[in-house]
Structures are given as C-alpha cells and as structure tokens.
Amino acid sequence: MELLIRQAVARDAAAIGAVHAQSWREAYAGILSPRWIARVSARERTARWRRILAGPQPEGTWVAVADGTIVGFASAGPARDDDPPRPLELWSLYLLESHQGLGIGRALVETAIGDRPAYLNVLRDNDRTIGFYRRMGFEPDGHTGTLSYWEDVADIRMVR
Questions:
Q1: CA 113 to CA 88: how far, in whole Å?
Q2: pLDDT grade, residue 151 (50/70/90)?
Q3: Three-state SS for 104?
C-alpha cells in the first residue's frame, strides 16, 4: 500500500465527506441509535467540508491517501473550549474501518499535532478509540460532557 499524508485542499471535500459519513456509520454503530446512524449523510458532510476547507484554517486538516484514495483525515487547531486544558485541540480523526490497524491513524495524529501537548473529546462508550488515544499518550482528565448533536451521549476529554 502506498500511503501519503498531506494537507487537505478544497477539491478533497467530497472524498472527506464520504469518509466522514462512512466512518461515523462504522465507529458509532452500537453506540448511537440505528435511527441516528441512518441519518448520516455524505452529502451533508461534504457540504460541511466545503465550508471548512474554504474557511480561514483549512491548513489544520490533513488527509490520508492510500493507493490514490482518501481513506481518513485529521483536523487540529486552537482549543475551542472555554476552559481548555491545552491550547491545541485534536478536532477530529476519522479513518475507514478497512484501513484501521495499519498505522494510518497514528500517522495522521503525528502529522496533525506531532508530539505537542493537546486534548480531544471522545464518546465515552467508544472503547476502541479510547484505547487508540491512550496508545498515543492521551489520558482522561476527568472532564465529561454531553453531546446533544449525538443524541445526548456522554463524552470524555483526554489530555496529553
């Protein structure tokens, strides 16, 4: 497999949107309701990514291209919380299930934030992802919340 990690550009919006929708379906099945999963739309995610990549900080988004196809992405930048434990936040990391376990997620995180202190939020019941972040040096800091966008599911904050 030939792998390239590069900054996302505007023309990547449709591919990122498709990966975003598919990876949500894969990662959140069993955590979120089938009704919520069924509403996940590549079209809506693509429209969102078009806006993001046209915005002021598209340089904070990286894509993983495996054999010429975008299979994952990561976004990072300034903390968005009112009380951030670190100035840098890993905003998102999504990778198609078919490409997990190959070191691509690690490569995306290393490219997006390097080894700098950072934080992220993850669904509390997403054990596999929490394990991945622990291997990347993140630990829960005790802060919890509820994401109403996600059917009022609990999340935790992890800090490195």
A1: 8
A2: confident
A3: helix
Cβ-contact 121, 157 below 8 angstroms: yes
Query: Distance between CA 97 and CA 99 in Å, rounded?
Result: 5
Pairwise CA distance, residues 119 & 155, whole Å: 13
Q: Which residue has the tokens 């990966």?
A: 19
Gap between the Cα atoms of 19 and 31, Å rounded: 19
Max CA pair span of the chain: 41
Q: CA 88, CA 48: separation in Å to the nearest integer?
A: 22
Q: What is the pLDDT of residues 69-80, one digit of tens each?
A: 999 999 999 999
Question: Which pTM does this prediction carry?
Answer: 0.94
- The one-letter code for the residue type at 11 is R
